[in-house]
């Protein structure tokens, strides 16, 4: 464990970042995992990926989110999980930004639901801000993956 | 410094915990299997939107499919309205109350060619099957030449609570309300109970998604989405007039 000055504060930030990233991913994945068809449609509504491939992403995404989220919460393979979680957030930010730029009126479907909504109901700035915040948590963990109360620490020392 | 001690520590370290490579490989394998299963389950039983099985009469062969609602052919200069609706969508119910009679009048006068696309995505959102059941039933009504009548009967009975759906008895009643009688009613009943147009119903949803329509109601006039411009029935009438060549 880091014994330099500020090490305990950094430990605390790391733990917080790990739990935020993990819980957000589990929450997002769990909200979609029981409605795969809805998830597939939410991805298609972005009109970025080809129809069939967008469907595959929609079916796979909730499972991957839940799993990476679980790894983060228990602190196993923290750096690798944070890299994957962070890349997903970057992809979401690009997708939402692209939908916004193209003038689509969609719900990101981040926590279930998704698809076209009224233009007045879109929440692009908030959705992007939220994902940037979560991506920042991932960034911290990629740089400094060592956190207290982690399985990484328990198992691999 | 005591070099022998640090050597001991270094030698002991790898034995301290389990092998991360094995744990990582097991987790990766579980994810891959889960993802493959999810994709296979998700894509099975779906259509590619091109199957031509058991189409109801009036089925349009064009890209986005749909059922032609005109009992009598529209005038040759009449524009085309494409209407995308889900029978469980409350906003579609409101749309039908506001615009339905006007559209029906225009269809009967032959002023527009109306193609109705009965979408069924709300079944997935609401976790029931009423959108598909009624979409099949209205396709059966199209076979009896009573598409618009049946369509109107379903929307007239739309439950106040989204997701409450329609009972089997109601779905039967709509056929009578739509004026399907005698041998046509027997045929309709068979078509309804055997879910004869089930594949067509799935194809309609897929075709709409491929055409980029993922919300209901959506009304297109000669392919252009005019849903948001419709404030009153008059606004629809004037746009249809403008589009009449």
Report the portion of residues of chain A in β strands: under 5%
CATH topology of the largest domain in chain B: Glutaredoxin
| Global mean pLDDT of chain B | 89
Head-to-tail CA distance between termini of chain A = 10 Å
How many separate structural domains of chain B?
A: 2
CATH superfamily of the largest domain in chain B: Glutaredoxin
Tell me the number of strands of chain B: 5
Based on helices, strands and strand pairing, what is the structural class of chain B?
alpha+beta
Terminal-residue CA separation of chain B = 97 Å
By secondary-structure content and strand pairing, the structural class of chain A works out as mainly alpha
Individual helix count of chain B: 10
**Strand line-up across the major sheet of chain A:** 1-2
What helical percentage do the residues of chain A reach? over 70%
Main sheet of chain A?
2 strands, antiparallel
Q: Oligomeric state of the chains?
A: heterodimer
Spell the H/E element sequence of chain B: HHEEHEHHHHHHEEH
> Biggest β-sheet of chain B, characterized?
5 strands, mixed
Which residue ranges of chain B are poorly predicted, with pLDDT under 50 across at least 5 consecutive positions? Answer: 48-52
Mean pLDDT of chain A: 93
Radius of gyration of chain B: 27 Å
**How many β-strands of chain A, per DSSP?**
2
